[in-house]
């Protein structure tokens, strides 16, 4: 095919995004039949005859890279069968998420069918589904198939009772801890917040760590993540099950946010500086050997093992975040997931590609080559993953408790209300009063 589809995307993007966007256009003729041909490649069987024509679709994704790029993986799909050819449209990286979001919104809103398949930040799923831009996927991926993924990722990919996205990769909040300091204090890895507070205080008192527990209290998206985790670990939630009412001010949520306030002002295991910290400012003291515990994302582990960046090489462990008595560990879900354009003119081809991209085999490839964590629990049992990415293998227990942020098409407004309300609660100490006010704003937004 000509590159008209790709050119359309390029020409209609905002300038800020189009400057960073490139299109992979290499054409090849490949094996016959997606499943059979993949097996043929794996077992070294002869290649089938080249196809004369192929269904053409486009795939737009934020940029990720490692030993391989997404383009390499897309080319592998193109090589694995001869029915579909995918043209890859590379969007900016997640660090430029506003531009990625804007680019996708502009294209999907036109309902031209391009891109046919796309990746999306987990917090955009409800927005795109609510606007009618995402193709419902239940008829293609039944309940048994959905059970092959972490429940939290399926929940995040579901809107209005329908599966409107398919899991790609997952990240979540987790607890990093100093193995040596816990051992020296005769303490176990904490399972409850009370246990963490006790161990952190003891280690601080011993003088072996300046800080007990570091987290992110800056009025930003990461504060919403920290709040989701601690509230869910107490059995609470920010929205009602139907998503039409705020419940940020119920007793469980108030107790959870009060705990965060107390880490600064009562137990004093956290410095007041956390109120202005996001991920990196909170990470640096931990990898400098100054803290017993840290809540952060999976990227921290690699830095902690880098002798040029870290004073705690081989001294760091990772575990699920603690919970309140009677609750369960909760980890705020992050990551990008797949979607199919509701206006695609080639839904069968799009689903074939999506099935391949989200398969266990491809998820393992992403994990090994790009360091992207699988959304299928079974992949974590693969021996090759354990040998080449031992840290990632530890994350299965963490991701089992992955919890999505509020699922609502008005998330962009809801998150600002959460950030403001929780931040004010943490600064003023008027936890119930500030959460009452924030909850009123949230209910008006979603109601």
TrEMBL record:
Keywords on record: Periplasm, Signal, Transport
Gene3D superfamilies assigned: Periplasmic binding protein-like II (3.40.190.10)
One Pfam family cited in the UniProt record for this chain: SBP_bac_1
MF terms (GO), sorted A to Z: maltose binding
Origin: domain of life: Bacteria
Biological process (GO), any one: maltose transport
GO CC annotation, single: ATP-binding cassette (ABC) transporter complex, substrate-binding subunit-containing
InterPro entries: SBP, TAT_signal
Similarity annotation: Belongs to the bacterial solute-binding protein 1 family.
Name used for this protein in its record: Sugar ABC transporter
